[in-house]
Amino acid sequence: MYNPNSAIERVKNHLAYKLGQAMIDFTNNGGGYIALFKKLYKIKKQHKKEQKIYQQTIQIFPQLKYPSLETCGDYEQALRYKFHLSYMLGEVLIKADKTWHKGSGFKLKNDIKKANKEFQIFREIFKEFDQINSSILEGLINNKQLFLKEFPRIKNILKIHQDYKAILDNIFHNFNYFIQNFDLIEEWLLSDDFNERYKKGSHPYPSLLDPKKLNDENEKINYKNIPAELAWEMNLPLPDRYEFVIFGSHGVGMKSVLAILKFLGYHNPSYLNHEAEGKFRYYQAYVTFLSKKIFFLDIFDYGFEGCDKYLLMIAKKSKCIYFTRDPICILETYINAKIRNPNFSMKISIDSNLDGKLNLYKYVNSLEAQKNFIFSKNMGLRACYFEYSVVDLLKLKDILYIDMNELQSINIVNTFIKIFNFLNISLNINDQIKNINFGYSWYFNGLEIVSSRFSFFISTHASVLLNDKVWENYSEITDLVSYDYDVLDFKIFVKSDCYALLINDEKELKKMNTFLKKFIQEFQKQVGIERSRKITPSQYLKFLFTEEKKEKTIKLKELFDYELQHIKQHRPDIVAS
Questions:
Q1: Residues 295-310: pLDDT tens digits?
Q2: Which InterPro entries match (predicted)?
Q3: Domain limits of the chain?
């Protein structure tokens, strides 16, 4: 009795393998054809009997059902047994037996010769290429005749690219697709364009399909009929539906830039978080770019899993805008990064005592945590300085550098005019973009102030501009409640169905006026407290380097020297410090 947990033993127990082995024994040992046919008949009869007993057994004892072959530890090795001569001869005999009444016996001799020839072909492939795994073997089994039909051409492709491991890995990793779409892939892999774009420079992630054809919706196979997951596996570059690329690290105003571009009608793929793997960023960008909008691509992280492959999928030669600032200022912004404290209640009474109650800021980068991952991938200082890594990897040439000082409200309109002139895009820049910023006031966006009769809602200029639909059922009353003081960046709303009642309620308006005045005072006081809490770069560096100082200092200098080399060459004024 064979071991049901061994895929090899179970494949060797297949009828095809047993019949073929009997035929090989006959060829080697002789014995006459009548004896051979009797033996084959006996094997077939015994096999049917065993199968019947097995089916009856598992009907009564279902727990005795064998595990699927795929779950066996030797599954991959077992698949190779289906390419043994014994198995392939057995398949010929089974086919002949089923079609004997159609005269298949007359072709049996030729079919056996054919099986021997096919066996030699597969043996040659397995001997020459060590990338053969279970998925490739399954592909060969499912597409055996198609593979054999095109074998001379397939062999030619593999031979031509035998010194380019990256494309061989891609072919074997997607072998099913390779065989089923061989004509198209062959044309691409033999083209001068493939040689120039990928093979000549030993590109680590060569595309299995021609990107030019993929971007043409009139082609039979294009981006729209290839799932994002398969596209990633085949190293297909992202669809070229984006007009330009922007990139910049943490702490250079990227949040405001993204918001302004959205306000101006441009869209970008949205990622789940900064830790998202490269393949998930790719999926999101791939699907996003297939819709009918105006797109740009943004790079604001580096070092995440699959980072290099993701970045190398950005193949379109686009103009780039790089947002940056003095490297020490980047560090200061990063180490003082904050979020809204999730424990802060965004609903308060209009009668509340606000003294010391507006502390809703939570800092995400504690010093102790920073000490542990200062140079970790996509964390610590690595999240702040990666400019040259991106420029070098993508071979970027046409870059416009924007200093964060140019993003100040007083400069922002002219800065975006300069950006779109650089991009050769004609666009009217709305002056309203100077109100899009994410300062201390932003964290109070959506705060609800509850009185006995109404609820008032605090928002900001940026929120209203960027989320106009959110506020379409609300009416602004800022001027009604802040007539005697500066309300800063805040805007006040009530639900539109309450507006008519409120404007005639002087008591409620006066009450809100008093509350808002106190709110502004406490807000400014809290901002002062937060600014005094800021960790300075010198404090940060002193804390980090108290232990192993020399080693970390050298490492930081190496990081700066490497990542800042390009900007030192093109915009030395930004990194003068």
A1: 999 998 888 889 999 9
A2: DUF2972
A3: 7-200
